[in-house]
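Notes for week 9. Today we move from apo structures to complexes. The key idea is that a small molecule is not decoration. When we ask for a structure prediction with zinc ion present, the ligand SMILES becomes part of the input, just like the chain. The input block below holds both the sequence and the ligand string. Read it once before you look at the output, and try to guess where the molecule might sit.
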Amino acid sequence: MVEDCNDPLAQAADLFCEEEMDTDKIEESVKEMLIAIGEDPDRQGLLKTPHRVAKSYEELLGGYRMDPRALINDAVFDVAYDEMVVIRDIEFYSLCEHHMLPFIGRVHVAYIPSDKVIGLSKIPRIVDLFSRRLQVQERMTRQIAEYIDVVLNPQGVAVVAEGLHMCMMLRGVMKHDARMTTSTMLGVFRNEISTRMEFMQNIGRGATSLHI
Ligand SMILES: [Zn+2]
């Protein structure tokens, strides 16, 4: 866990974890699950499954171990630019915290700088930071926006996420094409309708629709 609780970036990623994931424990648990399901964990096809599952969780849940401060090191620049910056169609992969099933989709991010901009490649990393953990889409959307707000102190930030949730598609209500849209608008995006409209038109125009 973080030592310095006053660091706003650490707060933005409030579950930052410095210890490595306990993959041995995950392997043991998966083996128990296989037995509970009624499977034989010793049959050939399943022998390495607990190990593979543990490895995939390391990747899918890697956000807990991305240092939110190191992430933006040397990537924030002083620039006299105050027009809207839009990064559209950033893919995300997450696991819903209620079922630990994937929800996947795209995130659109915009901000209007005050005097600082961030390296373009960092925005997808910020999306990974908050998506690669047990999440709900609403919170993920807000965290991405607040993180950028803290790092750049811009005139405003807007984040819109569109997600397909396996827990809705494959079980329960079985809605195979229900797409969830969430948004967080801060600063001028919240206060000025014209700014918000410009962003919404920008992401609506030719945005790739979700296909899986
Ligand atoms: Zn779920």
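The longest helix spans residues 137-152.
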